[in-house]
Structures are given as C-alpha cells and as structure tokens.
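Recall that a protein's primary structure is simply its ordered list of amino acids. Everything else, from secondary elements to tertiary packing, is in principle encoded there. The following example makes that idea concrete.
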Amino acid sequence: MLIDCAGKQLNLSQPVVMGVLNMTPDSFSDGGCYVQQDLALRRAETMVAEGAALVDVGGESTRPGAAPVSVQEELDRVLPVVEQLVRELPVPISVDTSKPEVMREAARVGAGLINDVRALQIPGAIATVAASGLPVCLMHLRGNPATMQQEPVYSDAVTEVHDFLAERIDACVLAGIARERILVDPGFGFGKTLEHNLSLLRHLDRFTGLASGVLVGISRKSMIGLLLDAPVGERLVGSLAAAVIAAWRGARIIRTHDVRETIQALRVCAAVLTAD
C-alpha cells in the first residue's frame, strides 16, 4: 500500500521504520540532543542512511509529567528543521504535534504526515488536516501527559482503545479526511499500565483493519524498563523484541530511536513471515 505524503510515497507493503527526532530539551530519552538545527539535520541524515522510511519531528515532549509549550515555542523549534529536512531528504517528514497552528505551518513548508497523540481532538485540528490533504496518525491517549500515568483504569483496555480510535476515524471521515489517509496508534505508555501495554501488544492485530495501517511507538519506553529493570540507555534489546512482536502482529510503522538495529530485526521478521 502506498500513501502519498505531500508528493513523497510511503510504501507500507512491509513494515517500515520511522526515525524519532526530538527538538525538545526534556524528552525522556534524547531530550536536548538535537535542539540545534545542524545537529538535527545530521541525525536525520544518519537515520535515513540507516534505512528510515520517514522521520518524525517533535517540538513538545509528551513524556509522563511533561509541561505544555506555547504554539510559538513549538513553531520555533520545529518549523525551520522541517523546512530544511523536506528540502534535503528524500523521505517524508512527519510532524508530531497536536496544535492546529503547527499542523498548518508544517504542511505549508512541506511536511508529509501529521502525527497527533491527541487524535485531532483539539478544536480546529480535524479541519486543518482535512484542508491540508495530508495523511494523519491518530493516537490513543488517556488523560494528558501531565497526569496520564496516575493510576489509569480500563475495564477492557484493548476494546476501549479500539473503540476510541474507531470513533475518531469516523469523525475524520465525516470531516473529509479519507480513510486511506488515516493511520492509528494504540498509544503505548500513554495512560496505560504495564499490563494494559502488554495486552495491547498481544492483541495488536485487532487494530489492523481500522485504517491504512498501525503505527507503534515502544522504543525505550518505561514498559521495557519495567520488564527488564533497565534504565533508558539499556533498553535496546527489549525495544527490538517489542518491535518484532508488533510487526508480527500487524504493525506497519515502527517508531524508534534506534533505526539501524530495528531495521535489521524487522528484516529477519519479514523473511520469516514471507517464507513458504
């Protein structure tokens, strides 16, 4: 399946990797590493050379407890980088944002995908994406980043997350966003306990029929740390295991900090899945 990302094609016939590029001082894993534009460009170039099919640029941390940033601050962080990456890289550039103003400006300078942890729930977001013609990824988030991990409760996490995403897809289609332009993300670590996250990963195939594909972001997250009793810098192997499981269960985009290693793991997974 091909998705048109502002003229650059994203091929989801096999699982692909989305490289993470955080333009933030406080992201949980690489906060502060790439806040300078030249460093961000070099990191993005490296990820693409390693095989990333797209690069996801974020200007507001959504880690548990993160404080919000203003529209202008987010624009100042991401817009110059997005504009340069669009010009210099052959792959689509995704923008990780919930703010309609940032979506609009990112689309103006050539961004190819909107990746929204709030599933276009902020007023004006759906209309902005519909007008842009860009594909969008809708993620499930219970609560908000400041409070989402304060004892989240579900009666059935898989069903509730599935139903929420289905409702958001319906709202998007009603607003003029074609279902073929929509991706979904169950939101691992966003208002979920370890048990909720594991159940969602185990039943990820429940989400594959909702839209054009499932995006999964598990890289280095606390669920890996809890399972392995490992700090952020020692979660690579666990992240790769989760990525392979996600691809096996139907994910088409794996969002990761560790592009080369994840691609290698996915190649082995794909070889087995396509074997006779």
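The chain has one domain: 10-270. The first helix runs from residue 37 to 50.
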